[in-house]
Amino acid sequence: MDIFNKCYKFTEADEIKAAGQYFWFREVESAQDTEVVVKGRRLIMAGSNNYLGLTNHPKVKEAAIRAVEKYGTGCAGSRFLNGNMDIHEDLERKLADFFRKEAAVVFATGYQTNLGAISALVGRNDEVILDKYDHASIIDGSRLSFGKAKKFRHNDMKDLDRVLGSVPGERGKLIIVDGIFSMEGDITPLPEVVALARKYGARVMVDDAHSIGVLGEGGRGTAEHFHMEDDVDVIMGTYSKSLAAIGGFIVASRDVVNYVRHLARSLIFSASLSPPLVAAVSAALDIIQNEPERRERLWHNTHKMLEGFKELGFDTGSSNTPIIPIIIGDQIKTLKMCGLLQEYGVFVNATVSPAVPKGRELLRTSYMATHTEEQLDRILDAFKRAGRHLGVI
Fold first, then answer.
1. For residue 355, what pLDDT is reported?
2. Mean pLDDT, residues 351-376
3. Where are the domains of the chain?
4. Hey, which CATH number is domain 72-290, 3.40.50.300, 3.40.190.10, 3.40.1790.10, 3.40.640.10?
5. Is there a contact between 178 and 237 (Cβ–Cβ < 8 Å)?
6. By the 8 A CB rule, do 28 and 222 touch?
7. Which are the catalytic amino acids?
8. pTM of the model
9. Does the pLDDT value for residue 354 go beyond 90?
10. Backbone φ, ψ for residue 108 (5° rounding)
11. Given pLDDT bands bounded at 50, 70 and 90, which one contains residue 353?
């Protein structure tokens, strides 16, 4: 048996392409901004995670350029060996201060952050308890660990209580939830999660990839949003959303960070984050703190779009954040609608199984602080036309 047989038999992507309904790996020919160029056409971007609009901010770009001029483009090795630079250490101190934790450790990607941190923290005698809608990197990090993983129904605290109650008392327990869930756009009920963690002697880790810069008075994410910064043991975040770069980190107690730093294989065996990215993140953190009006504008745009979609009759699920799913519930209609929206000048993300359960296919839309009223109105008009054409509304 040739191990590549499965590859030769994989035809689904080619079939979707032949039907003219392939909307993944689209080539963007411009900066990630409120409008992008795809195949020479200018589209309104309604599918980016650039929530605060910082990827094209002059101060962020200037910081990256200065870092290249001083340090070059790469670090030529793992942080564990020769690739640990002063700017990595400076960023870790800055992140720890921003999130009001004792320490931080920086990884090269967000995905690697969860792979490394979770697999390091969850050992043979431990159990990790996950929301069924947790990000794939959380699930994969749990699989790489030597512990046992259990899942509870999405945001269902009775089911979390049941799962925690099934874990033997002598086993270590780590509950991991997304702060904002990346497809549904809803927020984890953190107070209830923490209360159950205390009841069963569990620790809590929050993946705040989509919450940083978005939730909380100071943009510190879910824990700040619920005034529970002292109640979350580990906060994980990425730079590829509001922080305008790529990479990831955790903040926690000094002991936890020190342990992860020396045991996380994805940190030890990966080259370190390149200098311009580190500098870009540092500059973005400054902007988040110094320009709170960006977050205010983001929420103005979010409320406008949530109300607009509901008035048109679209199903937005339980979203109450800048991630607004348009739930179609049918793969073919989802892909057709994505195509119509692109034809009408709007870029959105078609999300089908396995990214979401079958029967819950959706168009994932998301909004930025820098979207104009006119752009948002054009997005709503395009959805109205496409939705009526396909009988979705």
1. 83
2. 94
3. 5-56+292-389, 72-290
4. 3.40.640.10
5. no
6. no
7. 182, 210, 241
8. 0.95
9. no
10. -80, -30
11. confident
